[in-house]
Write a structure and sequence with these properties.
The chain is of the alpha+beta class. The chain has one domain. 33% of the residues lie in helices and 35% in strands. The protein has four helices and eight strands. Strands 1, 2, 3, 4, 5, 6, 7 and 8 form an eight-stranded antiparallel sheet that branches. The radius of gyration is 18 Å and the shape is globular. 21% of the residues are buried. Residues 1-20 form the signal peptide. It comes from Chryseobacterium taihuense.
Length: 195
C-alpha cells in the first residue's frame, strides 16, 4: 500500500512540475482558489493572446458503506470567459498580485481549522499562500484587520461573481444516489446524502 502511495506522490510531483513549466510559457495570469468550508477549487487564467478561461473543480468522496471504501468524484464546471476576464481585472484592482507573507496574521491560531489557499503566477513561478479561516463576507465571520479584509474581499469576489453555491447545487443535482463528503480543515468532514 505504501508503494502505491509513493508512486502517486511521484506522479503528482512530476505533473506539478510539468504544469508549472506549461504555465510559465503561455499563461500571463493564473489564480487558483481553494475556499474554506468548500469542496471547490476555482482556477482562472489569461493567456498571452488575452484568452480568459476559468473552471470550478468540485472534489467529493463517495462512501461505499458495504466495503468501507471511498471513491473520489471530480466535477468540472466551465466558467463564462467574460466573467473570468472581469474577475481577473477586479482581482488586479484589489491588488492580489501584491500579496506576500506579511498578509498573514500569525497572532491568531486555529487548531485543525480550514484555510483559504491562493496560488498565483508571478515571474513564471506559482506562489502559494494560506490564510486560516478566511471565508467570503457572506459568512458570519467578517475580518477586521486591513490585510485580512483585502484577502476576504478576494474570496468574496470569487464566491459572488461565479455563484459558487449555485454551481454546487447543480453538481449535487447530477450526482447518483449515495453519501458524499468533503474535507473541512484537518479533521472535520462535511457529508450529505443524495436520494
Amino acid at each position: 500500500m505504501k508503494k502505491i502511495a509513493y508512486i502517486f506522490l511521484i506522479i503528482f510531483v512530476f505533473c506539478s512540475l510539468v504544469q508549472a513549466q506549461k504555465l510559465s510559457s503561455n499563461i500571463t495570469k493564473y489564480y487558483e482558489f481553494n475556499l474554506c468550508a468548500s469542496p471547490h477549487t476555482i482556477i482562472l487564467s489569461e493567456k498571452n493572446n488575452r484568452i480568459n478561461k476559468g473552471y470550478v473543480f468540485t472534489i467529493l468522496n463517495k462512501s461505499n458503506k458495504r466495503n468501507k471504501t471511498e471513491k473520489k468524484i471530480v466535477r468540472k464546471t466551465k466558467l463564462d470567459p467574460a466573467i473570468v476576464k472581469k474577475v481577473i481585472a477586479e482581482l488586479n484592482h484589489l491588488e492580489i498580485d501584491k500579496v506576500d507573507k506579511t498578509y498573514k496574521n500569525d497572532s491568531v491560531v486555529y487548531l485543525d481549522g480550514d484555510a483559504l489557499q491562493i496560488k498565483l503566477l508571478r515571474n513564471g513561478i506559482i506562489d502559494k499562500f494560506y490564510f486560516s479561516e478566511i471565508y467570503p463576507a457572506k459568512s458570519k465571520k467578517i475580518e477586521n484587520m486591513p490585510n485580512m479584509i483585502k484577502v476576504q474581499s478576494w474570496a468574496t469576489l470569487i464566491d459572488q461573481e461565479f455563484a459558487i453555491d449555485d454551481i454546487f447545487a447543480k453538481v449535487k443535482s447530477k450526482l447518483h444516489k449515495g453519501e458524499y463528503c468533503y474535507s473541512l480543515g484537518a479533521i472535520y468532514t462535511q457529508c450529505f446524502t443524495v436520494k
